Amino acid sequence: MSEKVLMKVEAISKIYQMGEVTVNALKDIDLEIYQGEFVVILGPSGSGKSTLLNVLGGMDLPTEGKVFMEDQEITGYNDKKLTAYRREKVGFVFQFYNLMANLTARENVELATEICKGALQIDEVLEAVGLGDRKDHFPAQMSGGEQQRVAIARAVAKNPALLLCDEPTGALDFKTGIKILTLLKEINKKYNKTVVIITHNVPIGAMADRVIKMRSGGIIETQINDNPIHPEGIEW
Amino acid sequence: MKKLDVRLLRLIKNSKGQFISIAVIIILALTVFVSFNMMRDNLDNTIAHYYDITNYGDVFVEVTRIPGNAIENLYDIEGIEMAQGRVSNDVPLRVEDPNEKVRVRVVSLPQEEYIVNDLYTIEGRSLQENPRTAVVLQQFSDARSINIGDQITPYIAGRDYPLDIIGIVGSPEYIYLMENEQSLLPAPERFGVIYVTEEFAQSAFGFQGSYNQVVIKIQEEHLNKIDTIVEDIEDQLDRYGVRRVTKREDQLSHSMMMEEVEQLDQMSTAIPLLFLIVAAIIINIMLSRIVKNDRMSIGVMKALGYGNRAILAHYVKFSLAIGLVAAIFSSFFSIWLSQVFTNLYIQFMNIPLLQMDIYYIYFIYGILLTSIFCVVSGLMGARNVIKIMPADSMRPEAPKAGGRILLEKITFLWQRISFSWKMVIRNILRNKRRAAFLVLGIALTYGITMVPVFMASVWGNLFTIHYGEFQTMEYNIDFAKPMNHNAIRELTQILEVDHIEPKVEIPFELRNGWRKKNVSVIGIPQDTAFYNFKSPSGTPIVVPRDGIILTEGLGKILGVEIGEEIVLKNFIPDREDTTILVEGMTQQHLGTNAYMNIDTLNHVLGERDMITGVMMNSEDQVVLKLQDVKNISQVQSVEDMMNSFLEFMDMIIYSVGIMMLFGGILGFAIVYNTTIISISERTMEFSSLRVMGFDKKEIYKMISRENGLMTMLGILLGVPIAYGMCYGVVSAFATDLYSIPLIIEPRSYGVAAIATIVFVTVAQLATIKKIYRLNFIDALKNRVS
Predict the structure, then answer these.
(1) How far apart are the C-alpha atoms of B594 and B584, rounded to whole Å?
(2) Is the pLDDT of residue B134 over 60?
(3) Virtual CA dihedral for A103, A105, A110, A113, nearest 10 degrees?
(4) pLDDT attached to residue B784
(5) Do B305 and A88 count as a contact with CB atoms less than 8 A apart?
(6) Does the distance separating the beta carbons of B297 and A88 come in below 8 Å?
(7) What digits encode the pLDDT tens for the residues B593-648?
(8) What is the pLDDT of residues B762-779, one digit of tens each?
(9) I want to staple B217 with a disulfide (CB 3.0 to 4.6 A). Which of A53, A149, A234, B82 is the partner?
(10) How far is B2 from chain A (nearest CA, A)?
(11) pLDDT for B312-368, tens place per residue?
């Protein structure tokens, strides 16, 4: 982990209009994420963590405030530039994997890599997530854990600066969840990727370099772990 | 291959039923577009080429008698390239069965090198000097199995003339072989044309050194002044008793052929357009459904960095793929269909040179047209891709606002509807736009099905109205030359007659200012029992004492109204033209005529008690007994007309079948696709019902009820649409020669409804698999597309 700032978030707020209700999803948040860091954002549902992740990943724009990626302000981007940002800089892992049902594991990864520069070797990445022999299977033929590995491979193979994971273990059983977390940790180390995980599962925080706790759209606490534990030591 | 394209191919594979059904509609559209356009060009070009090589005339003049040297004088008129005289008369032909009435038109051919209206020799030799030889028109020789070397015997002026057939020919004048405007249909086994030497015709008909017809060719650069030239010709030939001057555009075969070309032209636009629009709407609905289903996938694509354009293109390629696959198949089909059509034309018409040229430009136009339709409908259908925000798409969609429907507020009614029907009605109203499309689609199917059903009954109606209501005589007898009224008495001595009336039928040129038209004016007794004139609104019209009754179409051509005067220009030498008051407009579906009181007409002609024929009802063997009677040129019986009509029905049934198939395919595609989409949209709902204990049959029954209700509504809406379509067909088919009565029989509505229900049911059955294969556990578990 270095002291180099990868992303910088300045005073962002996000207000939604859901039907007749106005939701203050994010309230005046400041945040920095460092290169190579493993960050866990903790919070109950409705705390605004998903919204924050979406803003970081260029999937959503804040109502107010600025977001910088490597000194570039992405909040000023138009749709086209935002698309390019997602393409080159960010890898997403979703709670429900969100694979393309009619593409095989390998094709799902290729779908992501064929539009970006400097992608990693697909087979190597699939090997690294432990799917070397399952790469020609369709999502429906794989277990949840395997599907999530494909999703991680899809995000990693793009060789993004930032890996954003939205409840990556949320749909998995404990054992598989730990395996996925171990994999993310390995990727963090092996490829020196910045990984941001959002979860409501408090014990996961123990493996992070830094834990950011959120509630009601604001950061209530930031905790630095000098000695993050190995995921296998986590229990819930 | 790009992974998005791989995904596309698998998407297509998974929805192949829809893909194929839409492709079939586009294949139909394109096939009709390409082949009808090619056929029109082929027919048009071939006819032009045929006219060219046979030196087809521009003006045809019928006179009482004209000597050869008078024809030479025609060259004084500027613009006349060639003028040739000929003798032409219709006579009976001797055939084995004495009850069979066969007539031939005996036409003389000049012994010159360069002939106007030359013949195209198909088999055998061309006509030589031997006066006892003849060549015969192909349609006639085919229909009567006449071969080279056979002998045929026309009966001319009381004598048999056996002639040796030495050749079989085609003529530009008889591509479409009909005896006259009143014939309705070609009947080549009962009417034919034979060509004989000038020497033979002149001596047999008593026209030594003279002719009764002049065929004129006009120099090309003077064709724009044809009307002035025709007037000059009329003036110059006036003293030879001009009976009729016909320009090429009014010539029977030519105008029928041009009608055919025109119809091909209209069909080549109307049918493809209708089918492409339907296909475009289905594509639109289908793609918008797929995009909705793929909401999360689209979000993922966007998260991965795919732009709107790439994702839109992904879906538009789906519709484009349908279009391109259809284009490939239709290319083969249109060549095949053109071939079939060409063969039909060759079989039913006499165009010896007709061949099928392929015009590739129409393939290109067709593919371009389809591509545009597919891209536009694809973009319209997939446009919501742009609206999908990657962040939102990860969350399940908020349930749509539900509310009470209007019907529910009418509690009295609503309470009487069973629960399952309530569900059906709510479901229909849940997606009003699609329900509207389904109803409209079924209505359209109903309309398209109605057109052939209507057309099938049209000819019958045309026949019964013209020969059963408008004119009721059983026989129409024409004399070879004008006779005195006493001829009636003579006839009643030969035949047992129930009722007989005299008639005078004489060609006139009717004029109103610059508008003019050559027609037969028929003089009948004022108290005629054989004609029932009716105004378009249905009011009976009595034969006026002094005025004239025009057919409705003729009134339009001349631009006159009742109460206005027109000029009767007769073709009798040195006779003044007469002005006459239009006193009535009658509906007449077959042919164009004008009617007058027989005495008034005689007065106009400067005659007394002259008749040119009779009309009568008789139980006697009229044809047989009049066989050898001198001075009778033709005996037309309604029964003959009926027979030729029945033969024609075979061809009608064939084309009715094809049209029905078109309607069926359309209906199938519309119902199949909307049902499949509706099922896929409600997978979750059906799964919930399954979990609750509904069985597959019950769910399927619900969908069937929805479609059933929609079919009923569709058919109701289809009634005015069908009427409109039939009206369109009627207006498109209306010509000088005939107009189709717009009468849709109650039975036709029923037949079309049954056909529509069959199409819908077949489509409905085709979707049953989707419900039975529905894996409800998976559907409930998996919220991810």
Answers:
(1) 10
(2) yes
(3) 130
(4) 42
(5) yes
(6) no
(7) 899 999 999 998 888 889 999 999 998 888 878 877 777 877 888 777 767 666 66
(8) 988 888 887 787 777 666
(9) B82
(10) 8
(11) 999 999 999 999 999 999 999 999 988 888 887 877 777 877 777 889 999 999 999
Report how far residue B522's alpha carbon sits from residue B592's, in angstroms, rounded to the nearest whole number: 11
Average pLDDT value for residue range B480-507: 89
Tokens coding B196: 């004989």
Residues of A with CB under 8 A from a CB of B: 18-19, 50-51, 54, 57, 59-60, 79-80, 83-88, 90, 92, 94, 96-103, 107-108, 110-112, 114-116, 154, 158, 166
Residue of A nearest to B783 (CA): A96
3-state SS class at B123: strand
> Measured between alpha carbons, how far is B112 from B86 in angstroms, rounded to an integer?
12
Contacts with B669 (C-beta within 8 Å, 6 or more apart), sequence order:
B21, B22, B24, B25, B278, B279, B282, B763
Cα-based distances in Å from B388 to A52, A56, B295, B311: 19, 18, 7, 11
Neighbours of A182 (CB within 10 A): 15
Collect all residues of chain B within an 8 Å Cβ-Cβ radius of residue A102. Answer: 7, 10-11, 14
- Spell out a b/e string for A67-104, using b for 16 or more CB atoms within 10 Å of the CB, else e: bbbeeeebbebeeeebbbbbbbbbbbbbbbbbbbbbbb
Structure tokens at A54: 């979406």
pLDDT band at B783 (very low <50, low <70, confident <90, very high): very low
Residue of A nearest to B302 (CA): A83
What is the H or E stretch that residue B102 is in? strand B102-109
Written as six digits, the tokens of B254 are 């030519």
Structural tokens at position B651: 């061809």
For residue B302, list chain A residues with Cβ-Cβ distance below 8 A: 59, 83, 86
- Copy the structure tokens of residue B174: 């008889």
**Per-residue pLDDT for B785 more than 50?**
no
Measure the CA–CA gap between A8 and B53, rounded to whole angstroms. Answer: 87
pLDDT tens digits, one per residue of A78-101: 888 989 999 999 999 988 888 888
**Cα distance between residue B566 and residue B569, in whole Å:** 9
Identify whether the C-beta of residue B195 lies closer than 8 Å to the C-beta of residue B33. Answer: no
CA distance A155 to chain B (A): 8
Residue A184 · residue A197 · CB < 8 Å: yes
**Would you say domain A5-233 falls under CATH 3.30.70.270?**
no
Q: Which residue has the higher pLDDT, A219 or B127?
A: A219
Q: Which chain B residues are closer than 8 Å to A94 by Cβ?
A: 300, 394
Flag the least confident range among A58-72, B282-296, B390-404, B519-533.
B390-404
Mean pLDDT, chain B, as a whole number?
A: 86
Query: Can you give the pLDDT at residue A28?
Result: 93
Query: What is the SS3 string spanning chain A?
Result: CCCCEEEEEEEEEEEEEECCEEEEEEEEEEEEEECCCEEEEECCCCCCHHHHHHHHCCCCCCCEEEEEECCEEHHHCCHHHHHHHHHHHEEEECCCCCCCCCCCHHHHHHHHHCCCCCCCCHHHHHHHCCCCCCCCCCHHHCCHHHHHHHHHHHHHHCCCCEEEEECCCCCCCHHHHHHHHHHHHHHHHHCCCEEEEEECCHHHHHHCCEEEEEECCEEEEEEECCCCCCHHHCCC
Complete DSSP assignment for B51-81 = HHHHT--SEEEEEEEEEHHHHHHGGGSTTEE
CA angle B744, B747, B753 (to 5 degrees): 95
